[in-house]
Amino acid sequence: MNYVLESTTFCLFSLFIECFSYYSEFDSDVTEPPGRINEIGACYSLSCIMNTFNKSEYRSLPQVRDLLETYHYNCYLRDMNSVSRRHVFIVIEAPRRRKRFLIAKRLGKALGAAVMFSPPVGWGKFRGFFNKTIEMRRAFHSLSLYGTANNALQYLGRRPVVMSGFWLDQATFSIAKKYYPDLPPPESSIFQWPKDLLKPDFTFFVNEPLPRAFIKKREESIRYQILQVYRRWVDPPITELYVDNDIGIPAVVEEMLTFINNPALTPSSLRT
After folding, report:
1. What's the domain count of the chain?
2. CA distance 155 to 244
């Protein structure tokens, strides 16, 4: 019985890797940045996630197998050959998730775009189990980003996609926490987007101040550190929008649309 279970698990992982490798449009030669960054939150490649799930204490768990089967099915549906010309892929990042959600929803409506979130629809049933340890939670949420990216690719051939929070939401916090209070220089490999993950065409960081009564001194310092990480990021470029508490969501969306509709800022891959 154990032999059959281990064989099934091995086959599942083999199919999973084969599926991702076949459909990926990105460079498969992915190198991890130095240091402990992957141990505290951010995964820079799919292999980083798989190394966690392939540990002896995890790989035979039914919940892990179910999760990977779900991702494998999602990956299998993705057909890059059917995407003749991608529409714009936009990511909204912000310290306050509720505000980020509302902005993404309104921007999506203005653009006629699909609005997406992570974890993907249908993955919520896994959340409780994978919240048991920090390592499992990190792996689950990291894989969720890849699952959401696959979903986005299925839409981008037909319409724009707006996502509320993506990889930088995890990465900036991890980098800020690990390197507090001194960040590496901008040319560090830490400030690199994963080569095997769909890259946004536009990334907006909504910098909104919080009332001092709601944050402690340490939290304020981390927030400032996260802001500096966003400001050091080059590829993909980050558009920072400073939003005062008096500025409403419609005004924020209008400002975003001026960037998106500016031909000079349109990514070369989307130009006709």
Report:
1. 1
2. 33
